[in-house]
Amino acid sequence: MMRRFSSNSFSESGFSEMSAQQQREAFGVTLLTNSHKDIRRLRQQHGAPSIHGNKFWKSTYLLMDYLKEFPIPNGARVLELGCGWGIAGIYCAKHGAHVTGLDADPAVLPYFEHHAQLNEVSVATLCMRYEKLTKQILSEFDVVIAADICFWDEMVNPLYNLVRRCTQAGVQRIVMTDPARPPFSEMAERAVEKLGAELEVWSIPHPYNTSGLVMDWQID
Protein backbone atom coordinates (compact mmCIF):
# COMPACT_ATOMS: atom_id res chain seq x y z
CA MET A 1 0.00 0.00 0.00
CA MET A 2 1.32 3.42 -0.94
CA ARG A 3 1.59 5.97 1.84
CA ARG A 4 1.82 9.70 1.23
CA PHE A 5 4.11 11.61 3.58
CA SER A 6 4.12 15.37 4.05
CA SER A 7 7.15 17.37 5.16
CA ASN A 8 5.03 18.63 8.07
CA SER A 9 4.32 15.18 9.48
CA PHE A 10 7.07 15.28 12.11
CA SER A 11 6.45 18.86 13.22
CA GLU A 12 5.42 17.79 16.73
CA SER A 13 7.66 14.74 17.01
CA GLY A 14 10.25 16.21 19.31
CA PHE A 15 13.15 15.19 17.11
CA SER A 16 16.27 17.13 17.89
CA GLU A 17 18.06 20.03 16.36
CA MET A 18 21.00 18.70 14.37
CA SER A 19 24.59 18.61 15.52
CA ALA A 20 26.96 19.78 12.82
CA GLN A 21 29.27 16.84 13.57
CA GLN A 22 26.46 14.36 12.94
CA GLN A 23 25.15 15.53 9.59
CA ARG A 24 26.41 15.99 6.05
CA GLU A 25 25.36 18.07 3.09
CA ALA A 26 25.55 16.47 -0.34
CA PHE A 27 24.15 18.01 -3.52
CA GLY A 28 21.87 20.22 -1.44
CA VAL A 29 20.48 17.34 0.62
CA THR A 30 20.97 17.09 4.39
CA LEU A 31 21.93 13.60 5.54
CA LEU A 32 22.22 12.43 9.14
CA THR A 33 24.96 10.08 10.27
CA ASN A 34 24.29 6.80 12.06
CA SER A 35 25.45 8.37 15.32
CA HIS A 36 22.92 11.21 15.23
CA LYS A 37 20.43 11.02 18.08
CA ASP A 38 17.48 11.11 15.66
CA ILE A 39 18.76 8.01 13.90
CA ARG A 40 19.31 6.29 17.24
CA ARG A 41 15.75 7.21 18.23
CA LEU A 42 14.37 5.85 14.97
CA ARG A 43 16.16 2.57 15.65
CA GLN A 44 14.54 2.43 19.08
CA GLN A 45 11.08 3.23 17.74
CA HIS A 46 11.05 1.20 14.52
CA GLY A 47 13.95 -1.22 14.79
CA ALA A 48 17.09 -1.39 12.70
CA PRO A 49 16.63 -1.87 8.94
CA SER A 50 17.38 -5.44 7.95
CA ILE A 51 17.85 -5.46 4.15
CA HIS A 52 21.02 -3.38 3.79
CA GLY A 53 19.15 -0.17 4.63
CA ASN A 54 21.19 0.45 7.75
CA LYS A 55 23.33 3.20 6.22
CA PHE A 56 23.90 5.52 3.29
CA TRP A 57 25.55 3.92 0.25
CA LYS A 58 28.07 5.88 -1.82
CA SER A 59 26.52 4.96 -5.16
CA THR A 60 23.85 7.50 -4.27
CA TYR A 61 26.50 10.20 -4.69
CA LEU A 62 27.05 8.93 -8.22
CA LEU A 63 23.33 9.01 -8.91
CA MET A 64 22.86 12.57 -7.65
CA ASP A 65 25.92 13.82 -9.49
CA TYR A 66 24.77 12.18 -12.72
CA LEU A 67 21.26 13.61 -12.37
CA LYS A 68 22.79 17.02 -11.74
CA GLU A 69 24.58 16.71 -15.08
CA PHE A 70 21.63 15.08 -16.88
CA PRO A 71 18.54 16.20 -14.95
CA ILE A 72 15.05 14.78 -15.02
CA PRO A 73 12.14 17.04 -16.02
CA ASN A 74 10.46 19.22 -13.43
CA GLY A 75 7.27 17.57 -12.24
CA ALA A 76 8.35 14.04 -13.23
CA ARG A 77 6.86 11.15 -11.28
CA VAL A 78 9.91 9.36 -9.88
CA LEU A 79 10.13 5.92 -8.29
CA GLU A 80 13.28 5.12 -6.29
CA LEU A 81 13.84 1.37 -6.03
CA GLY A 82 15.39 -0.05 -2.86
CA CYS A 83 15.28 3.49 -1.53
CA GLY A 84 16.71 2.88 1.94
CA TRP A 85 17.08 6.33 3.44
CA GLY A 86 15.85 7.80 0.16
CA ILE A 87 18.53 10.42 -0.32
CA ALA A 88 18.47 10.27 -4.14
CA GLY A 89 14.69 10.50 -4.16
CA ILE A 90 14.85 13.49 -1.83
CA TYR A 91 17.35 15.11 -4.20
CA CYS A 92 14.82 14.67 -7.01
CA ALA A 93 12.00 16.02 -4.86
CA LYS A 94 14.05 19.13 -4.09
CA HIS A 95 14.28 19.65 -7.85
CA GLY A 96 10.55 19.47 -8.48
CA ALA A 97 9.85 15.75 -8.86
CA HIS A 98 6.96 13.85 -7.31
CA VAL A 99 8.79 11.04 -5.54
CA THR A 100 7.83 7.60 -4.27
CA GLY A 101 10.39 5.53 -2.39
CA LEU A 102 10.04 1.77 -2.60
CA ASP A 103 11.71 -0.68 -0.24
CA ALA A 104 11.01 -4.24 0.86
CA ASP A 105 11.90 -3.43 4.47
CA PRO A 106 9.16 -1.55 6.36
CA ALA A 107 11.66 -0.64 9.08
CA VAL A 108 13.68 1.56 6.70
CA LEU A 109 10.84 3.78 5.49
CA PRO A 110 10.70 5.95 8.64
CA TYR A 111 14.35 6.88 7.97
CA PHE A 112 13.36 8.03 4.48
CA GLU A 113 10.38 9.94 5.85
CA HIS A 114 12.48 11.62 8.51
CA HIS A 115 15.08 12.75 5.97
CA ALA A 116 12.28 14.05 3.76
CA GLN A 117 10.96 16.11 6.66
CA LEU A 118 14.46 17.33 7.42
CA ASN A 119 14.84 18.47 3.81
CA GLU A 120 11.35 19.97 3.67
CA VAL A 121 9.97 17.85 0.83
CA SER A 122 6.92 15.64 0.53
CA VAL A 123 7.25 12.04 -0.61
CA ALA A 124 5.26 8.82 -0.80
CA THR A 125 6.39 5.36 0.26
CA LEU A 126 5.65 1.90 -1.06
CA CYS A 127 6.65 -1.22 0.86
CA MET A 128 7.19 -4.16 -1.48
CA ARG A 129 9.93 -6.03 -3.31
CA TYR A 130 10.83 -4.57 -6.67
CA GLU A 131 10.39 -8.00 -8.27
CA LYS A 132 6.65 -7.67 -7.54
CA LEU A 133 6.21 -4.40 -9.43
CA THR A 134 3.69 -4.90 -12.23
CA LYS A 135 3.44 -2.97 -15.47
CA GLN A 136 0.29 -1.37 -14.11
CA ILE A 137 2.14 0.05 -11.11
CA LEU A 138 5.15 1.06 -13.20
CA SER A 139 2.90 2.91 -15.64
CA GLU A 140 2.25 5.47 -12.90
CA PHE A 141 5.87 6.69 -13.08
CA ASP A 142 7.92 8.65 -15.61
CA VAL A 143 11.37 7.93 -14.18
CA VAL A 144 12.79 4.99 -12.19
CA ILE A 145 16.04 5.45 -10.27
CA ALA A 146 18.15 3.19 -8.07
CA ALA A 147 21.56 3.06 -6.42
CA ASP A 148 23.41 -0.06 -5.34
CA ILE A 149 20.58 -2.59 -5.55
CA CYS A 150 22.22 -5.39 -7.57
CA PHE A 151 24.93 -6.93 -5.39
CA TRP A 152 24.21 -10.68 -5.55
CA ASP A 153 24.22 -12.96 -8.59
CA GLU A 154 20.62 -13.98 -7.97
CA MET A 155 19.53 -10.36 -8.39
CA VAL A 156 20.66 -10.11 -12.02
CA ASN A 157 17.65 -11.71 -13.67
CA PRO A 158 14.94 -10.13 -11.46
CA LEU A 159 16.39 -6.66 -11.91
CA TYR A 160 16.87 -7.04 -15.66
CA ASN A 161 13.28 -8.29 -15.96
CA LEU A 162 12.11 -5.26 -14.00
CA VAL A 163 14.03 -2.92 -16.29
CA ARG A 164 12.42 -4.61 -19.27
CA ARG A 165 8.95 -4.23 -17.72
CA CYS A 166 9.66 -0.54 -17.18
CA THR A 167 10.42 -0.12 -20.87
CA GLN A 168 7.12 -1.83 -21.70
CA ALA A 169 5.03 0.10 -19.17
CA GLY A 170 5.62 3.60 -20.49
CA VAL A 171 8.42 4.63 -18.14
CA GLN A 172 10.38 7.36 -19.91
CA ARG A 173 13.76 6.91 -18.25
CA ILE A 174 15.66 4.51 -15.98
CA VAL A 175 18.87 5.55 -14.20
CA MET A 176 20.81 3.17 -11.95
CA THR A 177 24.24 3.44 -10.35
CA ASP A 178 26.55 0.91 -8.74
CA PRO A 179 30.19 0.63 -7.60
CA ALA A 180 30.74 -1.74 -10.55
CA ARG A 181 29.99 -5.01 -8.83
CA PRO A 182 29.92 -7.95 -11.27
CA PRO A 183 26.17 -8.65 -10.85
CA PHE A 184 25.25 -5.08 -11.76
CA SER A 185 27.68 -5.06 -14.66
CA GLU A 186 26.11 -8.24 -16.02
CA MET A 187 22.58 -6.87 -15.67
CA ALA A 188 23.47 -3.50 -17.21
CA GLU A 189 25.40 -5.01 -20.11
CA ARG A 190 22.36 -7.15 -20.91
CA ALA A 191 20.20 -4.01 -20.86
CA VAL A 192 22.67 -2.34 -23.22
CA GLU A 193 22.58 -5.26 -25.63
CA LYS A 194 18.86 -6.02 -25.57
CA LEU A 195 17.16 -2.75 -24.58
CA GLY A 196 19.46 -0.06 -25.90
CA ALA A 197 20.55 1.30 -22.53
CA GLU A 198 23.77 3.27 -22.13
CA LEU A 199 26.47 2.30 -19.63
CA GLU A 200 29.40 4.45 -18.59
CA VAL A 201 31.99 4.87 -15.88
CA TRP A 202 31.28 7.82 -13.57
CA SER A 203 33.64 9.31 -10.98
CA ILE A 204 33.35 12.08 -8.44
CA PRO A 205 36.48 13.63 -6.90
CA HIS A 206 36.97 15.01 -3.39
CA PRO A 207 35.08 15.29 -1.10
CA TYR A 208 33.03 12.30 -2.30
CA ASN A 209 35.89 10.22 -3.73
CA THR A 210 33.77 7.57 -5.36
CA SER A 211 33.38 5.97 -8.75
CA GLY A 212 31.30 3.31 -10.41
CA LEU A 213 28.91 2.66 -13.25
CA VAL A 214 25.82 4.48 -14.46
CA MET A 215 23.17 2.77 -16.57
CA ASP A 216 20.82 5.17 -18.33
CA TRP A 217 17.92 4.07 -20.52
CA GLN A 218 15.64 6.62 -22.16
CA ILE A 219 12.66 6.10 -24.42
CA ASP A 220 13.27 6.92 -28.07
UniProtKB/TrEMBL annotation:
<dbReference type="InterPro" id="IPR029063">
    <property type="entry name" value="SAM-dependent_MTases_sf"/>
</dbReference>
<dbReference type="Pfam" id="PF10294">
    <property type="entry name" value="Methyltransf_16"/>
</dbReference>
<dbReference type="InterPro" id="IPR019410">
    <property type="entry name" value="Methyltransf_16"/>
</dbReference>
<protein>
    <recommendedName>
        <fullName>Methyltransferase domain-containing protein</fullName>
    </recommendedName>
</protein>
